[in-house]
UniProtKB/TrEMBL annotation:
Its main location: membrane. It comes from Erythranthe guttata (Yellow monkey flower). Forms a channel through the cell membrane that allows diffusion of small hydrophilic molecules. The channel adopts an open conformation at low or zero membrane potential and a closed conformation at potentials above 30-40 mV. The open state has a weak anion selectivity whereas the closed state is cation-selective. This is Voltage-dependent anion-selective channel protein. The keyword Phosphoprotein does not apply. Belongs to the eukaryotic mitochondrial porin (TC 1.B.8.1) family. It is found in: Membrane. One of its GO terms (cellular component) is pore complex.
Length: 276
């Protein structure tokens, strides 16, 4: 476990990732390589329906500095620079985008054995401000976050959460959407490598009295293959098969369909990540 409670954005993330990550609905090919100097280059091509897009990304790490630059087929450029320990136990992150440069932001994160703080401000004339704080330990933490819009002088969001973490499980409660939704999630690991796990999540939206119950899990067939499944009370069933090839290349096959409308065409996605 980490030495502190972690950032507010980490609360409930493990359960969310197990229920959403790798469930693809498009075709993607990714090729990565690393130079002797430590520069990592990745080229990705995505085909969704009859439309194809792609991007080229470069990542470089030098001492306490991380640089990531990405250019896509529509000439959008994004760059992220992260520097650790400008102030002890901190990380400073700058995100710049072009041509949508007004969406850039500057973020400061501070970590303490019993607290974590994050503050982000937009890089424009009327910058939005996001603040979050988490208090506790690696096993128990509570936190809150808020967003403030300087143009209107109003809060755009406020969220509160609590989490309990054990070596083989994690439970979280998140009250979000300005108090309109509550989400409870539990994840339990079945092996020490944490590749096999079960997860359950229930979310309620008070304004519409709508409940969503989702269950899922992952199972490591062997050291190279992993299967994931998920199902919710609205009839959405999804499955993922991942297999590691030689050289740590990874192929991911995903399918999702509506069990209440079997006449609809299922969603199907595949991703091949090649690492020589």
């Amino acid at each position: 476990m980490s030495k502190g409670p972690g950032l507010f954005s980490d609360i409930g993330k493990k359960a969310k990732d197990l229920l959403t990550r790798d469930y693809l609905s498009d075709h993607k090919l990714s090729v990565s390589s690393v130079t002797e100097s430590g520069l990592a280059l990745t080229t990705s091509t995505v085909k969704k329906g009859g439309y194809s897009s792609g991007d080229v990304a470069a990542q470089y790490v030098y001492k306490n500095t991380f640089l990531d630059v990405k250019v896509d087929t529509e000439s959008n450029i994004s760059a992220t620079v992260a520097i650790t320990d400008i102030v002890p136990s901190s990380k400073t992150i700058a995100t710049l985008k072009y041509p949508n440069y007004e969406s850039g932001k500057m973020e400061f994160q501070y970590f303490h054995p019993h607290a974590a703080l994050s503050a982000a401000v937009g890089l424009n004339q009327t910058p939005p401000i996001d603040l979050s704080v988490t208090l506790g330990t690696p096993t128990f933490a509570l936190g809150a976050e808020a967003g403030y819009e300087t143009t209107s002088g109003k809060l755009t969001k406020y969220t509160a959460a609590i989490t309990v973490t054990k070596p083989d499980s994690c439970a979280s409660i998140i009250l979000g959407d300005k108090g309109d939704t509550i989400k409870v999630s539990v994840i339990h690991y079945l092996d020490q490598s944490k590749r096999s796990a079960g997860v359950g999540e229930i979310a309620r939206k008070f304004s519409t009295n709508e409940n969503t119950l989702s269950v899922g899990g992952s199972y490591a067939i062997d050291s190279l293959s992993l299967v994931k499944v998920k199902l919710n009370n609205h009839g959405s069933l999804g499955a993922v098969l991942q297999h590691e090839l030689a050289g740590k290349s990874l192929v991911t096959i995903s399918s999702e369909f509506d069990t209440k409308a079997l006449d609809k065409t299922p969603k199907f996605g595949v991703c091949l990540a090649v690492k020589p």
